[in-house]
Amino acid sequence: MSSWIIHIVAAGGYWGIAFLMFLENVFPPIPSEVIMGLAGIQVGQGKMDFWTVILAGTIGSTLGNYAWYLLGRVYGFRRLEGFVNRWGRWLTVDWEDVQKINALFTRHGGKIVFVLRFMPAFRTIVSLPAGLFRMGTTRFLVVTFAGAAIWNVILTGAGYYLGRNFEAINDYVGPIATATMVLILIFYLYRVATWKPHDQR
What we know:
Blueprint: H1 2-26, H2 32-44, H3 50-75, H4 77-91, H5 95-116, H6 122-125, H7 127-132, H8 137-162, H9 168-194
């Protein structure tokens, strides 16, 4: 995958970075760590400007997250109840839980979206409930852009300083991301096995 990303970055420049980061947020398996890290190497070699790379990557990230946000807005909170009643067992939530999450997003939606921008898996998925619970569009875009910008500065800076030894990033980021995903899966399976709706608790 790295060679494919290198080709797009080399051929598309800043537009290529924005495109890849858009895809990374629509299809999370594409790793932002590799995209922005490789862009950082280009910066270190004098082929790209650091802050233009950050801007391109952050715009791509924001647009990708906005697609999930729009999906949530279009689907709508009212239609969510029927979906939850049907699939609540596998979602491990019932309608009472959803109402609590809605109240939480109403009070702290900006903080939730911003903090989760730095967590594997959650940094993209959080955009969907933000749309479902009708978080303000401007607020969503601002906190998403800010969180994505900080994350991209970290990744691009790592690529810049590590240079051609960029693979060393994976010695740290890769295992952490994998361990996080495994823990999320284990927790989910535990939730499914033990979950009961509120009226049975």
